[in-house]
Each structure stands twice: as C-alpha cells, then as structure tokens.
Design a protein that fits this description.
Helix content: 40-55%
Shape: globular
Bound molecules: pyridoxal-5'-phosphate
Order of helices and strands: HEHEHEHEHEHEHEHEH
Number of strands: 8
C-alpha cells in the first residue's frame, strides 16, 4: 500500500521537485516500506521519534527535521541531520551553527516564513526574516548553509487562499534571493506543499514538498 501510494505521489510531481516523505507518527516498519520502494528523504518533527527511527533505519536515509526545533535539542540531531527546515530565529540558527561546528559539519537549513492567515502557524514574518538577514550576523556562521525557505499554508478548504499564500512564499523567496543570495546557487529551495495542497504548491513554484498522510495513512 505504501509503495503504491508513494508511486502515485511521485508520478504527480513535476521534474525537479524533491519529495520529503513525512513519516512522523508512523512506525519504523512503515518508513522501511517506503525506503524499500526507493524513498531516501524522510521528514520528522520530533527529536525523540527521529532518534529512534534514525537508529533503526538504514544509514543512507537523509533526515529532514521539519517541526519546531527547540535550541536545547539541536545537539542531538546535529551529528546526522541532512536539513533543518524550520529555522525561525537567529538564536536557533546560531545554535545550529555551534553544534554543527562541534561535529565538523555544515548543516543545510531553511528559513521558516509565517505567511498564513492562521495565528497558529509558526515561523518568521517576512519583516522579521528581512530584519534578521539585514542584520548580517548570519554571514559569519560558517557551519550552516541557508538553502531557501519553508512555509505552511492555512489549514482551509479555500483553494484561492492557499494559492495566494503559496504565491506569497514564491515572491518572498525571490525577494530574499535577490537581496542576499543572488550569487549563491545553493539558495534554491522552496519548501511548501503537504498532502492536501502539494499539487497547488507545485503550480505556485514549490520545488520541495513534504508529504505524509498521502503516503503513509491512506
Ligand atoms: C506533518 C507535516 C507535514 C505532512 O503533512 P501531511 O498532511 O501528513 O502530508 C508537512 N510539513 C510539516 C511541517 C508537518 O508538520
């Protein structure tokens, strides 16, 4: 079932769109099924759950941390995490840099933007993100590499609203790119779109979707 779901999701993605299989809340066995069907990039949102899966599953999996990350948890994932997707403060970015340095690694991160109407969503407003980048301290953090942006649309059935939010994300990406990363080829990730809205997201310029329930729960 999982292999079939995965195949369907893959077939619906445009060329060049990265699929992160979000295995959170699903057992190790389910993640393994997806692995055996060829999936190598997985997303988790809680450190303890990720720790168990990382220990038990094959080592060539690239783990993305997609949830809110507390600074005191960074040290646990720094030795192996492939990407931290939801960086929402300079403080967190600095801690990732510090722990990455201790592990002698450079860790890829995304800046999480809050663009949804919902108050419940996390992330930086475009203004907060701009202020952080304008401050320039991030330029000295040699052990993190800012690869792009991540966001979540409002949890609504209103497709027009979702589309508006994704297009805002696309614009924000372009704006940040042109101001701070113009000559940085590696700043190229637009992470938005989940099970319910990834098809809209890829129409709106997403090149990195995070899909869970559509793969693991149907
Ligand atoms: C859970 C989660 C997803 C996947 O959600 P589905 O609706 O199960 O596809 C994607 N991104 C984030 C940040 C999540 O927490």
């Amino acid at each position: 079932m999982i292999a079939t779901n995965l195949k369907k999701v893959r077939a619906s993605l445009n060329d060049g769109v990265e699929l992160v299989a979000v295995s959170k809340y699903h057992p190790v066995e389910s993640a393994l099924e997806a692995y055996e069907a060829g999936q190598r990039v997985f997303g988790e949102s809680r450190e303890q759950e990720l720790r168990v899966k990382h220990e038990q599953l094959p080592k060539d999996i690239r783990w993305h941390f997609i949830g809110h990350l507390q600074t005191n948890k960074v040290k646990y994932i720094a030795p192996y995490i492939a990407m931290i997707e939801a960086v929402d403060s300079l403080k967190l970015l600095k801690e990732i840099n510090r722990q990455a340095e201790r592990c002698n690694r450079i860790i890829d991160v995304l800046l999480e933007l809050h663009l949804a109407q919902e108050e419940t969503k996390s992330g930086m407003t475009p203004e907060e993100c701009h202020d952080m980048l304008e401050g320039g301290e991030w330029r000295d953090l040699a052990n993190v590499r800012i690869r792009g942006i991540m966001m979540m649309a409002s949890n609504t059935n209103d497709e027009d609203q979702i589309r508006r939010e994704f297009l805002m994300a696309k614009d924000c990406f372009g704006d940040i790119k042109s101001r701070y990363f113009m000559n940085d080829e590696s700043f190229n990730v637009r992470s938005y779109g989940m099970s319910a809205d990834y098809l809209i997201a890829q129409q709106c310029g997403s090149n990195h979707v995070r899909v869970g329930s559509k793969i693991f729960a149907e």
